[in-house]
Amino acid sequence: MMTIMKTKSTKHTAVGRKEATHERIVEVAARAIRRSGYGGTGVADIMKEAGLTHGGFYAHFESRDALLAEAGDRAGAESVALAARVAAAAPPGQALHVMMQAYLSSEHIEAIETGCPVSALGSEMPRQAPEVRRAATVHIKEMIDLFARQMPNWGQAHAHEQAMALVCALVGTTIIARAVDDPKLSAALCAAALKQFTPAAA
């Protein structure tokens, strides 16, 4: 009886340790893909950053694409969750505008490693494996739905259409604001987009 109990406890601990290690790898990879892109994210680098050996990778993932899909899923979920928290904390009737401000803030523009993965990886997504693109698509839809629910005309078909256009504008503005080497131009681009779309939030 004692032996059985010990075996179960050891097995449970081993499973828990493996899950924790898996989570650490995904967490590191979710930052890495936003920082370095899909193409610039290597398995060896991720494992090293996670404090693990390269050889242990296949105990957790079938392939590099499987890791990228899971990392993209984690990054997308984090982004949507953050936007939802921003919306929930906003004053009544101000959620849409506050979400736009947060997305186009200098903090988000500079925080590519922890920011929206679509604006960090959008140009690379069409060339990724189906499972990587599928993970991105799920969270893009979630983000659009979240913005649509904050529209003054929520419940009407046009609200979802407006949300699609707004999300596209926010992502595009962020990409360009990060691309330029002129901080003043970067800030001006964000301010212009915010001003242009503020009526949608009114």
Element layout with pairings:
Elements lengths: L1 H35 L6 H7 L14 H26 L5 H9 L2 H5 L6 H5 L8 H20 L7 H23 L3 H19 L1
Helix pairs in contact: 1-3, 3-4, 3-7, 4-9, 7-8, 8-9
Q: Can you tell me the CATH architecture?
A: Orthogonal Bundle
Integer-rounded radius of gyration: 20 Å
- Top-tier CATH class: Mainly Alpha
What is the β-strand count?
A: 0
Order of helices and strands: HHHHHHHHH
User: Could you describe the largest sheet, including whether it forms a barrel?
Assistant: none
Number of helices: 9
Report the CATH superfamily: Tetracycline Repressor, domain 2
Content of β-strand: under 5%
- Helix content bin: over 70%
Q: Which quaternary structure do these chains form? A: single chain
On the 0 to 100 scale, the average pLDDT is 89
The low-pLDDT segments are: 1-9
CATH topology heading: Tetracycline Repressor, domain 2
Total separate domains: 1
Tell me the structural class: mainly alpha
Shape: globular
How many angstroms separate the termini? 68 Å
